[in-house]
Design brief:
By secondary structure, the chain is α+β, with helices and mostly antiparallel strands. 42% of the residues lie in helices and 17% in strands. The strands form four sheets. The protein has a six-stranded mixed β-sheet with strand order 6-7-8-9-11-10. Strands 1-2-3-4 form a four-stranded antiparallel β-sheet. Helix 9 packs across helix 13 and helix 11 packs antiparallel against helix 12.
Length: 415
Amino acid sequence: MNRLLTLLLLPLCLNAQDATVRTWTNQQGRSIKASLVEVSGVNVVLLLENGSRSTVPVAGLSKSDQIYIQAMHGGPAPAVGGTKAAKAALPLPAAPTGPLVWPAAIAVNPKAVNITQGLQNEAERKYHYQSGSFGFIANAPLTGTVMKEVAADFELVRTTFAAFPWGWHPKPEEGTLFKVYLTETEDDFVAIGGTDGSAAGSKDDYVFVKFSALGLKKVGAKYAYDARQKAEGQVVGMTARLMIGDMRNLLQPWAALGMEKFLRTVAYHNGALTFTNLESALKAEIKNDLAAGAKLDLKSLVETMQSPWSAQRSNVKQIRVQNYFNGMLLVYYFGFLDGSNAGLHQYFREVAQEAMAWRAYRETNGKSGRPEDRSKSSEDIALAFQEKLLAGRDITKLAAEMAAKFKAIGIKFDN
């Protein structure tokens, strides 16, 4: 067989010889499982476990993968041309295709939560604990029981996001654990980024919460759990913010804020998240918010959909209350009252896939980069996804539909 014929048949030979699934890793440490189909110029074609094929630049793979390709290729590894190929990321998981429905009720038994104790430094007031994907840093020592109770709500939200039909895979911005700071005193809370009058907050890629909001009380040298002091759902809202993560910049503000509040105040009760028969819970929270100064204002509600993130960042409590209130109503409308109720999940699913593409690109090219074929800003992309959710309806038509659907369940707007 001459050299030309060998080259022509090479892809077929590789396809037949290397059907074994192995782990492939890029130079930033991100891995997938796939089998090698063929070597094509500076690229390799991989067959993923879901049956799809993906072309990956050789230069973007680990050294061991390049050596493996060289061995399979029967000669030197394919030459790599330019830096553009070296910056490509590994393929993303296949987009989900399952039904766009809310998951069944989810609960986590605190007794089943495993807690690993780490640093316990009295001089520096640093006490570390770990549960699953979360790393907890406290200012005072906690009993084993209290950490199980605290961690259960965090694990509850993580489990729920995995059950959503969005195909979203939350990931810490740095490291392998989501960071949670548990603050003993008001000074501790302010030092980590908290503001007066609040019980919890977030900054960068971590969240923080006061002992008092978790229902902790000091018993001897350690803090124990007191359910009577616990702020119902407090952990759920801030954990939801962590789980939304990279999606946040590609969501309209109402969707991110509204999902946090909906999970915390409507879906959560007695340690579980449920997504059926929620009308009474919704009405109870509307009553609470109206007492706190929110308004059932239809004009404000539809205007919130066009409101940018800059309009959400306010130190005025009344504005924050109204923004979260409107977001909750919009999440409930698109998730339970609008047509087939699938629109909200389709919206989050599409945003999730785009967010993972941006994340993969940044992991390879740096935090400030974005895919070259996505030249639009994150704000433009967020609006484009929302337009698909609106399905051609203008604000007037949408407002009329909202008023009618909410009225049908006994909720009337002031205007």
